[in-house]
UniProtKB/TrEMBL annotation:
Keywords: Signal. It comes from Flavobacterium akiainvivens. Residues 1-25 form the signal peptide. The lineage of its organism: Bacteria, Pseudomonadati, Bacteroidota, Flavobacteriia, Flavobacteriales. It comes from the Bacteria. This is DUF4374 domain-containing protein. SUPFAM superfamilies: DPP6 N-terminal domain-like.
Amino acid sequence: MRKCFFRLSACGAMLAALLLGTGCSDDDNNNGSNPVNPVTDGRFITVAGAIMQDEPGDGNGGTRVYSITKENAQDPNFSVNVYANGMAVQSNRTARLQSSVDGSTLFNITYTGSNGGEFMTYNVAGGGNFTQSGTTVNISQYAGTSPRWVKLFDGDNTGVAVNVTAPQVVTGTDGAYVRTRGTATVLSLDLQNILISGYKQYEIALSAAEEAQGHHIFRLDAPTLNAAGNKLIIGTWMRKTDPATGQNASGFERLGSKSVVVDYPSLENPQVITSTVAFGDTSGYRSFNSFVGNDGNVYQATQRDTENGSYILKINQNNQYDNSYVFSLDDALGVTGSYIDAWRYAGNGIAYAVYTHEGANNQGFVARLDLNARTAQLVTAIEYDADLDFGQYQGFVVDGNQLYIAVTPVGKDGNIYVIDIPSGAVTKGAKLVNQPGNHYIGVF
């Protein structure tokens, strides 16, 4: 199931950071004549569709994938039916997929079930032809059967999975409440050799005052490698225990947004940093949630703050929040209760976000963000529908000056849209044929 705004529930990132040195142009005044990002000639674009299990749009019945050429993706007369022609990737529920920069490889960790936590790769050969790697590795003994993970943008070499065991209430000898904590795991995967390259486990403490009030880290997600390559910034999902009852508290006053910073590649020395600008979680949901911009700073979205909506936060190159940077999506779009489901940095300070807001009944929208000007604009050229829900959205493709996004209402046909990054011009691409209760969750 998707995120549930501020309502605490059992429901649970794409979109990775474009690090300096991975080919992004350093020209912040790119006039469109030069590519903003690397171009891969002959690149396949893989579309992914999530299958309904019990309720329309729950996506819990598995995931299928199908790959097409860039030319086909741009062609509105070309049709794709991933459910009829695609291949099922290994996952009991919605697969959490990543792809190589050139689109030639898919990376997958099985989500839940008897083989939950098993990592494998798929070679992308066009159409429904995907060859699974003969080698797999299971990380469940360290990170559980439902690990959150992302691929670092370090030349497709490393993935990082994170997990927090169910937080436990600790009381003193007199039975009085002391704190709530779980044990965190941060694990690195060698994507090329398909093996665990390192892991660390520890409890991550908040301040004594915060813990005495019951605040604790419920989930970690969406780790991002900083520009220097020596720290991981890991997003958090916060909860609070009622000290009087030992039960989860609802409607609590939220702390400032927090992230955990660990040394890389050692994964040691976890430190908690706190924003005074925003109060939402920074974990995202089934997608990347932080990116390194061309300026070398990390930009991070927030979620689950219904009072203030989503923010874009800035973490500077000393790995601390820059509290002078204030970018409220509510203010920029003129809405209330905005919620970023997923977003993607596209280069030169431009990003695209899929979001909903208060009063929209979970309907999704697409916005163009200017991180430098701290402005946002609804992309009006996309065909919207009341059943368009980006709650499980995962994958955008950025190739040269173009960003690709899949837009399908639940149970209805939709399209791939191709957006020119420098100008913002939108072109409708390939038709995505849907089935009742299903929806497309990304392109890779």
